[in-house]
Amino acid sequence: MSYLFLFHVPPDVDHMAPLAWKLLEEGNEVHGVISAGLDPAGDHRLEKLRSYPSFHQQELWPSSGGGGRTGRAYRRLRGYLRGTLPYAFLFLRRHRVELLATEWGYGLPPGFERPRSRAWAVALLRSLVRSFVRPGSDPRRARTNFLVAARVRGVPTVCLPHGLSIKLDLASNAELADLLKDGPIDWRDRNRVSAYVFNTEHHRQWHLEHAMGDPEVMQTWGSLRWAPEWFELNRRLVPNFRWPGDPEGRVKVVLMVPKWVNQASPEATAELIKRMQELDFVSLAIMGHPRPKRGTTDPLRADPDIRWADLHDLTGANSVAVIDACDAMIDVGSSIGIEAVMQGKVLINPTYVHELTTLFDEVEGSCVLARDAHEVVEYLRAHAAGRPSRVDADAYGELMRRAVYGSHPEPFDVIDVYRRRVQELAAAQRHRTERGPSRTTTIRERTSHGSS
Length: 452
Known about the structure:
Blueprint: E1 2-7, H1 10-25, E2 29-34, H2 44-50, E3 55-59, H3 68-82, H4 85-94, E4 99-103, H5 118-130, H6 139-153, E5 157-160, H7 174-179, E6 195-198, H8 201-210, E7 218-220, H9 228-237, E8 251-256, H10 266-276, E9 282-287, H11 298-301, E10 312-313, H12 319-325, E11 328-330, H13 336-342, E12 346-350, H14 359-362, E13 368-370, H15 373-384, H16 393-403, H17 414-435
Parallel strand pairs: 1-2, 1-4, 2-3, 4-5, 5-6, 6-7, 8-9, 8-11, 9-10, 11-12, 12-13
């Protein structure tokens, strides 16, 4: 079978590459289309995929290349054409793509519900015209082009996670809270795909209750990013990392900068850093969020009392490798805490830094809960004295069940569930095609809650 994966930003690669790898392992043909703005060079996950002869990488807007002025003009023209709807149609046809996998987000615009209707024709014409406005350089346009082309050609489409939400609140930020004031959000465009997949059941339930989700389209398949099989392979693939400076005899601590928009306090974070920088038994590193606009270190750098010369700024480093090198990680509201727990590292959860409730708050014993900076410091003293915290086995199992296995009991093979589901979707559409034209607008997995 031939599959197409549309990669937009690094988090997409994080959560989609495991499925592409599994399909390649089984001898399938996989096309990886790289959107504008994503540089595939040096990405260890894409490098692994490129090692398979049946993986074909295609950059819509090539990130590099020589050739002088003529070469640059040629690349711009080629990027422009690749960013149009006709190119998406030709790509799917030429490579006989049987399933499109793309990231979470907006779905098809209205009008595509009824094939060959007047509304359908108008929507298609509108999409065609819009595809020639800022094509290529706009990654969102490329995503829409492939979604439209797949719908028209009858190719099943799955929207896969580009992250894992461990937040349990109704609204994680002010923008979302504002949208919910008048009732459910109209995100029915997400229903216009074959399957819209979630890592966790609580996230799926949120979309059903507050975003007009279709229970047949919205499905929980678990977390590819932290599926044990991929987790172990990913640790072997990441680039080598050595803790900077001379940390000998000190507790190596990395603080993950939170997304400030998610009710996190820059002031509380800065105060915690200032407390820790005075500890001579701690080697402290700060790591900005992989999406800089969401978790930049700028608010912290504005504080004149933070001594950056005494800290290590690891922003841009590989988080898996950094966690492997540290002794303890401080994080609030992010799924990267799962990586720390699975690696056997100590996760410190300073709950006072933000106003949200997460899985780590609910799963007792999964991390070190700290209600203020003093409790963080006291724990680090205990760790330095040879009394590190250990995650309770039952807490580890419960965290994995809810965060990684989609609330299914073990054993639950996440990657195999994804593989089987996409193959079933592709095979079902092939069967429909062989039987003749169908007026069915979507292919839906009838089991909504990802059972094996």
